[in-house]
Amino acid sequence: MAERTPLEQLARVLAKNYFDTSQTLFTTTPGGALADEAANTLRATGRQVFTDDDAEELAVKRPERIVLVVGAGASFGAFGDAYPGTAAAVQRISGAVGLVPPAAAAEEEGPGDAEGASPAGQFETALAALVDEFGDTRIRAELVRMYGERHHPHLGFEIIAHLFKHRFIDVIINFNFDELLDEAIEGEMGTAEYHHVLFEGQCQGLAPLLVDRRLKIPLYIKPNGTVSHPSSMRFTREPHAQLPEPMHNLLAQIIGGHWENEPRAQARPNYQPYGVNLITIGFSMESVPLLKILQEVSRERKHSGITLFHLNQGRGLDALRAAAETRGWSRVTEEFIDVDRRSDADEGKDAEKEREAGKGGLAETLRALWNAVGGRFHKPFRPRGIARHEIVHNLFFAGGPDGTAGTRVPGAGPDGNRNLYYFQARLYAEVAMALARGNGQIDLGTMAESRVGVTFELMRSCKDGRNISIHQILQPFSRGGNVEFSGRDNSVYRFQYEQARDAARLNDNLARELWECLLDALRKIPDPDFEYHLDDMRRGPRARKMVDRFRRLASSDAQDISPAFSHRHLLLSREPQAKDVIHTSLGLTLRFVEMLNQSWDLMLAMSENGKVMSKYQRHVDNHSIGYDQADKRFCLILAKNDHPEVAEARLQRYYPQMLGLTNPPVFYIPAWAHNQHMVLLLKRTGREYTPVSAVRYETPRLGNRVNPVFIRSRADLDAALECFKRYLHMSVCGVLNGSGNTEADDALLRREVDELWDTLVKGGGERPPAPPEPGSTPTLFG
Question: At what angle do helices 122-134 and 86-96 cross, to 10 degrees?
Fold first, then answer.
């Protein structure tokens, strides 16, 4: 086996952590042993999931903790002097208050240093002198002015947020004052889906975030404070050298790999902390508190060890290598990944070669890392992609004039308004991406809670954006026609595009036409720099890449699963278990495959568009399912969203026609009545069917964010079965057809539903009933 590069090693570590967080079989003893039965199951799962030659050994390897540390070099490397490093920051503040820069800060590192940093201690010493001379309040105000800019998207931070949300990374420790990464995480996850630690009162320990001794809820920590809370910023020598005790203890617990809070529990003979992988980006490893914790951990006899992966560039990386040779830490291994100083906006052929080698700017290096992570999974198990993040980066990040850093476009609005044109352009892009994800449809009520709604409010917060309506934003997507809505509450917008009988071609048409409409809308933003930036995307390789990204959004059937679970299904469960909460897309896939490999005979599925059957077919093709599918029965209830011809084309794609099923029972209910999603499997015993397992979740209409829960108890399975029957009643008994039925008609329909139910789950008939035609009135028995 060829030796892995440091980037490949890091990709393997991240892929393994995603796998460990996604399954519930890794129940260890306090000493870390794995039960034989669980080990055998994990080995088999590893063969299905991983492409590595040693997939079985990788699957059963003891889990480790992944911690990312972010320093000033990340922001400086992306945006240059717009987010200065330590030495440049001191110079700028000194100039702002009318001083000649202090000698300690005058020798600024050159552009080859990713950190833009002064030697150890000089930043704090210089700021301490400025505070003594001009007061704490004045210096904090200058720091806020320097680092307070928001809404600067960059693929590097977008990928970090993506890795964090989808549980490749357990903990992020961000030592920067700026909020570039904060904003990327908020946009990716919202504020309720991770635990944010800024003040010492939020250092509650890890116990509430653990399930089976594993971190299930992502943890984001800013030990030095943040610019939106000026009083939280620690920037003088003494606060930097000593964190509040609760903050220090939390960091020590995380980096120490501990899953017990109390020292007494940690002292037990069979207690073994997790190994830790510590990734640093643009970080000089000069934080006194962090170095102290690492020294303590390196001396712990029980610790499984720490691997440090340093992503840095130029003299910053050379300094890290030199320091590693002198530290003499035991149980600590250090690896180094070079991040070249080059523009992240370049997408030419040379950039492709650089990415393959793991080189390039911060964005390109992290994109290469992401591609290496995805390549470790077989196709049916691959994580959700980064197409939307690539779209945002390529639209709104432009390379700087020196080819090393970049800036945001559009850069300004009328009357010096910094953000209006950007928010308007970003809103166009968010609407286009939502239409792609929704296969050409969006519901404005659902969008109000999404990135579309957040961006719309930001645009309206600008003075000249208050009178811009969502109708005006949607107008470019109507191609000069009227913006029309449908649905029960007149809130569903359908993008009209060229139809095709083949579902794959349908997505190609949708992607191409959405990109054309979006580009036309963006070119109307009156910013010459932005127009120049867009010129290169109208045709050629960059245009084809943008269309492909929209196609990937339209084709994806991956759900947007919230890491922090909060859902009424668990609240209402008769027998709730924390391990039945599903936190990742891979977790949902693994549970689905686990269910399908049980002994079952009938699948009842409720889905908005039938994509659940695409998942089923994919695992049939991949041989993830170890049985003969020919004798299985199905019944499917869909939301009535599409035009009939679109619904038919999508059903042809999603339903497993190659299994030889004819006239499958498919029923429809209106979209406004559909928010329950379920796959329920039943086993035939004699002439009746008994439920054996289920996965269930809710979504808002035409939404994609879900909180799945696995159902195993008989009481909860019976409740799920009753829910499916209620949906079947809604489909047949007047909800689809309006309220024109007489009471006698309703009674007749209800009797037919009961007969259908007997057919489905009580063995009343050997063949499933024929489905109604899309858009027609359901009739069950002729």
Answer: 20
Closest C-alpha to 281, from 163, 427, 437, 127: 163
Q: What is the enclosing helix (H) or strand (E) of 507?
A: helix 503-522
Q: Are the C-beta atoms of 115 and 284 separated by less than 8 Å?
A: yes
| Amino acid in position 266 | Q
Instruction: State pTM to two decimals.
Output: 0.89
Q: Which helix (H) or strand (E) holds 370?
A: helix 362-374
Q: State residue 342's pLDDT score.
A: 58
**Phi-psi map region of 331: left, alpha, beta (phi>0 left; psi -120 to 50 alpha):** left
**Chain segment 54-98, per-residue pLDDT in tens:** 999 999 898 899 999 999 889 988 888 788 877 788 888 888 877
Q: What is the pLDDT of residue 9?
A: 96
Do 696 and 711 touch, CB atoms closer than 8 A? Answer: yes
Express each pLDDT in 219-230 by its tens digit. Answer: 999 999 999 999
The distance from CA 727 to its chain's CA centroid, rounded to whole angstroms, is: 31
Nearest to residue 439, comparing CAs of 546, 605, 555, 519? 555
For tokens 């990386």, the residue is 317
| Dihedral Cα 520, 524, 530, 533, nearest 10 deg | 30
Q: DSSP H helical segments within 523-574, as ranges?
A: 528-535, 541-555, 568-572
| Bridge partners, residue 50, by sequence | 377
Contacts with 196 (C-beta within 8 Å, 6 or more apart), sequence order: 202, 220
